[in-house]
Amino acid sequence: MKKLNKKSSTQQLDEVKQGDLIKDDTGKTGEVENIEILTRKKETQYYYKLKHDGTILVIK
């Protein structure tokens, strides 16, 4: 299981693939179903859509 948060490196966030198990700081866990990466101004937003439990968002 990969633990993700805003302190995770860009490389760690980019290495997450569909099917990986991930966890965030709030305790939300799940299997990645889809990944969307948006770049806005000076920040990058990583949206990890989970199979059964919503989305994990990491802003870098």
Which descriptors would you attach to this protein?
single chain; 60 residues; mainly beta; SH3 type barrels; five-stranded mixed sheet; 8% helix
3D architecture notes:
Residues 1-26 are annotated as: Disordered. Residues 14-26 have a biased composition (Basic and acidic residues). The protein is mostly beta strands and 60 residues long. The protein has one domain: SH3 type barrels. It has one helix at residues 10-14, and strands spanning 2-3, 21-23, 29-40, 43-50, 55-59.
Mean pLDDT: 94
Major pleated sheet? 5 strands, mixed
The appropriate CATH architecture is Roll
Distance between the termini: 20 Å
Region (Disordered): 1-26
Biased composition (Basic and acidic residues): 14-26
Structure in a nutshell:
This protein is mostly beta strands. The chain is built from 1 helix and 5 strands; from the N terminus they run βαββββ. It has one domain (2-59): SH3 type barrels.
